[in-house]
Automatic annotation (TrEMBL), chain A:
The lineage of its organism: Bacteria, Pseudomonadati, Pseudomonadota, Alphaproteobacteria, Rhodobacterales. GO terms for molecular function: sarcosine oxidase activity. It comes from Roseovarius pacificus. Coiled coil: none annotated. Signal peptide: none annotated. This is Sarcosine oxidase subunit delta. GO terms for biological process: tetrahydrofolate metabolic process. It comes from the Bacteria.
TrEMBL record, chain B:
This is Sarcosine oxidase subunit alpha. NCBIfam families: soxA. It comes from Roseovarius pacificus. Belongs to the GcvT family. One of its GO terms (molecular function) is sarcosine oxidase activity. It comes from the Bacteria. Residues 169-421 form the FAD/NAD(P)-binding domain. Residues 522-604 form the SoxA A3 domain. GO terms for biological process: tetrahydrofolate metabolic process.
Automatic annotation (TrEMBL), chain C:
It comes from Roseovarius pacificus. This is Sarcosine oxidase subunit gamma. It holds the Pfam family SoxG. Coiled coil: none annotated.
Length: 109, 1004, 191
């Protein structure tokens, strides 16, 4: 059972306080978008072995959504950060680069 | 025979005798006994029958690894099957019964299986019971079920209490032997907050039995001293009777504390499951001795050498008067020496090693014990107890050299470190050829949230078997754990034990090395599941080469002991059969719990009235007192209907509906979700959430709305009231409140975080009461001076009023039943008060509280959809003919783009219609309308299905709604709905509205 | 004459610690920019208390301001004065985007009191929270779960804990707390 630190309230808690919300940094496509873009937005999620970016909600806590950068193999948590961003912050990327040189995820590396 | 010695028994308080019974026989033990030692003290060698062959079995071990001696403990509500006698502390009045036999332990019909053993090899069941197929259900399965199962399930409700406990420590040390004690001390001295847990009631592990000196004093003194040192350290917590059950991700450890098993009747909980987060975990879990595979190694009286020693030293019990010791290592010599010194006879030590033993062997010889090197046991003589052993040359095929009379055999095949907890969370093992064991690979430890190792093995759990190295290693482990959690270890050095010079172990997996098939078929690996050397060899021959496959084919290691004694021997035999080295075969996966823990401890507080939360409205007690027949809706309990004495459910529904339509009904609608949405951008946000245009709603007015997810599918519906320019109140379905609030917050926090909108879930702030029917306005007028006439409060309007007694209320002119109706929202703390007042004021109108089913029927009569009936997560509003609720003007709303996808606009999607049975009967829920022809799987084609179906008391006939292919264009068509019994109900497609089509009743 | 009643009407239980339902409490959910001067002033004027730090609670007796999330406070006042407090907030915050809503009847509140160590232990049986003195002290405010329901806890002093949960599950919560305080169930870790 994982432990995560909620960047919104500062609490470090076990997984039962949180609710996973799937992949992070998904761009919404709405009316006017192509079938391909819309299909990609709705259905094409990555499930990588290794570095991954996820959405979590501190459901039994402050109620806020945040993002977590995690390794799906070792379960190492590289960091958690605000959900109000469209890409991982540089300090998180630097941390991952230090531990997993050469990593990439979607358009980020 | 086994008996209590006059002397010895370091764990006993011989001054206090305890009575207990085994299979109804009355026995005596003493305080400090385990059930195992007490049974042995009473010469109860045979304690059960094996699972498959029903062979007589006795106690083999002295700890949690015991495979044979499982009993049913206690009676009635205290009964528990499969309890290990070796880990059960004796208490006065204990009762237990042996298992797996019929009619009795001594005479067991099932034992015939043993005679048939030749015909019941591994895989027998798979091969035999396959064909002919019909035999399975009527012959094979009943037969197997009859003979399967270990112990009996308890029949009565468990009366004890159990609890969880969340705890946090820097360092958790598992195992209270000398290694655990030293590791805890080293970590504690550095300042770390330490928990040290020990599964038995005693500190020191097996070192006090094995002897030696530490810092110049006997082990017992060392243990006393270090325990008292630890007790004075405020940052160290010591717990006995607490087992490290499992190690999980990110330093999570389960500690299973048997609080009062040993003192039944105590007020305290029986078990407490500690849910611990540890910075570092030190596994000082010791090692387990391995049996040796020779013919008859399961006869009662054949025991692990260490267990024989434990019973003698700890409990003053001699397992036999004449004990033959058989070994491939030096450690078993301790048993011979111990027994000899207690005045017991050791006719011979059979040492498989041609070169014999080291210093201990010399000591044994000096005591005059005969030692036979390079020899093995060909077979054990005896059935229900040991009568003697045949000795043979280890290198040979088992020709008997000599028969030696004895009544016990102490065997040692070497020691396996207890690597279970190390391995639970991914710690890897390496094969140590010199010591013939798997030990933790320190370079491949489990890693935590920070990517660093969080488990450190210590002492013999790390593969160190001699006291001196155990202490050194444990000290290093304790210091490392403290350092990893941010403390600076002290300079204190590890205690020094006198080193010993032992001759190396020789890997012996079978005795003798070339044993014939006849011997191998009696050489047991897994005692509990009756797996023999020959079975594993057969599995290898038949192609089950992976250790995981061989395990499942033979059931090796799959019993309740999870192969603690058998796994290493089994995979060594498998490796040998496959002619490959042991590490290449590898081990099966170690999974928690280490030994079985009670299911009740896992449930913790989640039993009886706290099994799960039940949500109750402020009027719950009234419903309960007035015949509510409950329906679970999410975690809520809502009245399905209220049954009067002598009334059937159908009669109750009929009464509730007709009285509501004719006069006055009341519904507890408090469970409806209520969410406030406020802010300058609230209108914009509402337009994204709902398919309709909500931003144009005027304050004081209500609008029914639909909510879809991004897939376009309908997820919730409800009435929205605009409270003021900035504020909306959204009603959701009963089950939807938390989800919809979460859905709103998700979009606000993760997509539109720059929009100025706040939400609040105020579902429980209000008790909400639907006052429904012709007389609803009349009854309300009795309770308020405010104007609630048709002009002041028109249909789909709301206003704030004050009710008798000064109850502030919001009243909504909305209708779900198709009658004139009002929904009153009042503070929850005054809900019951208002409910009582309405009952009183409504008496003259024959007011009738109604439940969810009447609500459903009345809405279906009106053709209103219900989320979860008409929708199932694949239905879009367009399917339900609800285009009127979808704004054409809005550029965007959640689900809009999805509803433009090709198959969402497919004209052949099934659409909502009403269904009227030709004979007036009621369609079965979920029934399908058949069409001509069959599909690719040979099934009847279908063209629609029933989504809601009821008997309508108003119309006196069955009514239904359903989704039908081209339904709205086929009014009047008759469809066939086959029932389960093969008959067919014919139903006509009609408009999905059965009652008051023009809405005249609700609009008065 | 108001006949308002709390969920369990002040039920109580004596075990290793005392568990009481605290009756009706005035509560207001206040959302907005917690760092803004308007918010600070509004809270001060309405309650006499400062906006607490992240993860903390300010106040004493029956008057509290708790930090719920980066944009949400929970104000606890006397049940009778909640509409005055609400009005005061509404006036003070009329110019800024905020939400102040009466949630007094949405919740139930419990107090566990007695031996401080045992009070901590009772909570640690139900909430996955580090209840050691060095990890949780008076002044801190923690939202978590209590068995299967959301709950928030704080310690008014070293010998008591207050718990807030939803009203509909008050009976479940009370039963949980009674179990955690059952006679003979001392863990004896914190004492």
């Amino acid at each position: 059972m994982l432990i995560l630190t909620c960047p919104c309230c500062g609490v470090t808690a076990e997984e039962t306080e949180f609710h996973g919300g799937g992949e992070a940094h998904i761009k919404r496509f709405g009316p006017g978008s192509s079938d391909e873009d819309f299909h990609g937005y709705l259905f094409e999620k990555v499930n990588p072995k290794g570095v991954h970016f996820e959405r979590w909600r501190h459901a039994n806590g402050c109620g806020k959504w945040f993002h977590a950068a995690r390794c799906t193999v070792t379960l190492e948590v590289f960091g958690t950060y605000s959900a109000q961003t469209t890409e991982p912050p540089q300090d998180i990327k630097d941390k991952i680069s230090a531990k997993r040189p050469g990593w990439s995820w979607r358009e980020f590396a | 025979m086994s008996t209590r010695l006059a002397n010895g028994g370091r764990l006993l308080n011989k001054g206090r005798a305890l009575d207990f019974t085994f299979n109804g026989k009355r026995f005596k033990g003493v305080e400090g006994d385990t059930l195992a030692s007490a049974l042995l003290a009473n010469d109860q060698m045979m304690v059960g029958r094996s699972f498959k062959y029903h062979r007589p079995r006795g106690i083999v071990a002295s700890g949690g690894e015991e495979p044979n001696a499982l009993v049913g403990l206690g009676e009635d509500a205290k009964f528990e099957p499969n309890q290990r006698v070796t880990t059960t502390e004796l208490f006065d009045g204990l009762t237990c019964t042996s298992q797996n036999h019929w009619p009795s332990l001594e005479f067991d019909i099932g034992a015939v299986n043993s005679k048939l053993a030749r015909f019941l090899p591994a895989g027998f069941y798979y091969k035999t019971f396959m064909f002919p197929r019909p035999f399975w259900k009527h012959i094979y399965e009943p037969f197997i079920r009859q003979s399967a199962g270990l112990g009996k399930a308890p029949r009565d409700r468990d009366q004890d209490s159990y609890e969880h406990f969340y705890a946090f420590f820097d360092v958790v040390v598992i195992g209270g032997g000398v290694a655990g004690l030293q590791a805890a001390k080293a970590a504690g001295q550095a300042g770390a907050k330490v928990l040290l847990m020990e599964q038995t009631p005693h500190w020191g592990g097996r070192a006090p039995v094995d002897g030696g000196t530490i810092d110049g004093q006997p082990v017992d003194n060392f243990v006393d001293q270090i325990v008292s040192d630890l007790e004075t350290m405020e940052n160290v917590t010591l717990r006995t009777r607490m087992m490290g059950s499992g190690v999980y991700d990110h330093g999570y450890v389960l500690g299973y504390e048997r609080v009062s098993d040993h003192q039944p009747g105590a007020k305290s909980p029986r078990h407490r499951l500690w849910r611990i987060r540890a910075g570092q975990i030190v596994t000082a879990t010791g090692a387990i001795e391995r049996p040796i595979s020779f013919a008859g190694n399961d006869v009662p009286g054949v025991m692990l050498a260490s267990a024989v020693r434990d019973y003698a030293v700890n409990y003053g019990v001699s397992v036999g008067d004449r004990t033959v010791v058989v070994t491939n290592n030096d450690d078993a010599y301790r048993t011979a020496i111990t027994l000899k010194k207690l005045g017991l006879d050791v006719p011979v030590i059979v040492d498989a090693r041609a070169g014999g033993g080291g210093a201990l062997a010399g000591e044994a010889a000096a005591l005059g014990i005969r030692v036979e090197n390079g020899k093995g046991i060909a077979r054990v003589k005896g059935g229900k107890r040991v009568e003697g052993v045949e000795i043979c040359t280890q290198a040979g095929e088992g020709a008997a050299l000599e028969l030696i009379k004895c009544d016990a055999v102490a065997m040692s095949g070497g020691w396996s470190p207890v690597v279970h907890l190390w391995s639970h969370c991914g710690g890897k093992l390496l094969w140590d050829d010199e010591n013939a064991m798997f030990r933790p690979d320190g370079d491949k430890a489990p890693t935590g949230a920070d990517g660093k190792r969080f488990v450190i093995p210590a002492g013999s759990a790390d593969g160190y078997l001699d006291l001196a190295t155990v202490l050194e290693n444990a000290d290093v482990a304790g210091k490392a754990a403290a350092e990893a959690t941010g403390y600076v270890p002290g300079k204190a050095e590890a205690p020094v034990a006198t080193p010993e010079t032992a001759a190396p172990i020789e890997a012996v997996w079978m005795m003798p090395q070339g044993a014939s098939i006849k011997l191998r078929m009696k050489a047991w690996l897994d005692y509990q599941n009756d797996v023999k050397v020959s079975d594993v060899q057969l599995a290898a021959r038949e192609g089950y080469e992976s250790v995981e496959h061989a395990k499942r084919y033979t059931t090796l290691g799959m019993a309740t002991d999870q192969g603690k004694l058998s796994n290493i021997n089994g995979l060594a035999i498998l490796s040998d059969s496959l002619s490959q080295p042991i590490p290449q075969t590898g081990t099966t996966t170690f999974r928690p719990p280490y030994t079985p823990i009670s299911l009740a401890s896992i449930a913790g507080e989640a039993r009886n009235e706290t099994f799960q939360p039940l949500r109750k409205t402020p009027m719950h007690a009234w419903h309960e007192e007035n015949g509510a027949y409950w329906e679970p809706v999410g975690a809520w309990r809502r009245p399905y209907c209220y049954q009067k004495p002598g009334e059937t459910i159908e009669e109750a529904l009929h009464r509730e509906i007709t009285q509501t339509r004719d006069s006055l009904g009341m519904l507890d609608a408090s469970t409806l979700g209520k969410i406030i949405v406020k802010g300058p951008d609230a209108g914009k946000f509402m337009d994204m959430l709902y398919t309709n245009m909500m931003s144009t709603l005027k304050p004081g007015r209500c609008r029914y709305g639909l909510m879809c997810n991004e897939n376009g599918f309908l997820m919730d519906d409800g009435v929205v009231a605009r409270l003021d320019e900035d504020t909306f109140l959204c009603h959701t379905t009963t089950g939807g409140a938390e989800n919809i609030h979460g859905h709103m917050e998700e979009w606000l926090q993760t997509e539109w975080w720059d929009w100025k909108v706040y939400t609040a879930n105020v579902t429980e702030q209000y008790a909400q009461i639907g006052v429904v029917g012709l007389k609803s306005r009349k009854v309300l007028e009795k309770l308020t001076d405010d104007d609630i006439g048709g002009d002041a409060l028109s249909f789909m309007g709301w206003k704030e009023i004050t009710l008798t007694g000064g109850i502030p209320a919001r009243v909504f002119r909305i209708s779900f039943a198709g009658e004139l109706s009002f929904e009153l929202a009042v503070p929850a703390s005054r809900g019951r008060e208002l409910w009582d007042k309405l009952i009183e004021a409504g008496a003259e109108f024959n007011v009738t509280p109604y439940g969810t089913e009447a609500m459903h029927i009345m809405r279906a009569e009106k053709g209103f959809i219900m989320i979860g009936d008409e929708t199932d997560g694949t239905v879009i509003p367009q399917d339900l003919g609800m285009q009127w609720a979808i704004s054409k003007k809005k550029e965007d709303y959640l689900g809009k783009r999805a509803q433009e996808r090709s198959h969402m606009t497919d004209p052949t999607r099934w659409k909502l219609v009403g269904l009227e049975t030709l004979d007036g009967s009621t369609l079965p829920d979920g029934a399908y309308a058949t069409a001509d022809g069959t599909n690719a799987n040979g099934q009847r084609n279908v063209q629609g299905r029933v989504t809601s179906t009821y008997h309508s008391p108003t119309l006196g006939r069955g009514i239904a709604m359903g989704l039908v292919l081209n339904g709205p264009d086929r009014m009047g068509d008759v469809l066939d709905f086959p029932k389960v019994d093969g008959t067919v109900i014919k139903a006509k497609i009609v408009e999905p509205i059965f009652y008051d089509k023009d809405g005249e009743k609700q609009n008065v | 004459m108001s006949e308002a009643v709390s969920a369990l009407k002040g039920a109580s239980f004596d075990g290793i610690v005392t568990v009481e339902e605290m009756g009706l409490q005035g509560m207001i959910t206040l959302r907005g920019d917690l760092a803004s001067p308007e918010m600070k002033k509004a809270v001060k004027d309405a309650t006499g208390l400062n906006v607490p730090e992240q993860g903390h609670i300010a106040g004493e007796g029956g008057n509290w301001v708790a930090w719920m999330s980066p944009d949400e406070l929970l104000l606890i006042v006397a049940y009778e004065s909640v509409s005055d407090t609400e009005a005061s907030l509404r006036d003070a915050l009329s110019k800024v985007h905020h939400l102040a809503v009466n949630v007094s009847d949405t919740r139930a509140m419990f107090r566990l009191s007695g031996n401080g160590a045992l009070v901590r232990e009772a909570i640690a049986k139900l909430c996955p929270v580090d209840m050691r003195t060095e990890a949780f002290a008076p002044g801190q405010f923690r939202r978590s779960r209590m068995a299967q329901v959301p709950a928030a806890i704080w310690m008014p002093d070293e010998s008591s804990v207050q718990v807030v949960c939803f009203r509909s599950v008050a009976e479940y919560a009370f039963n949980l707390l009674k179990g955690a305080a059952a006679p003979g169930s001392e863990v004896s870790l914190f004492s």
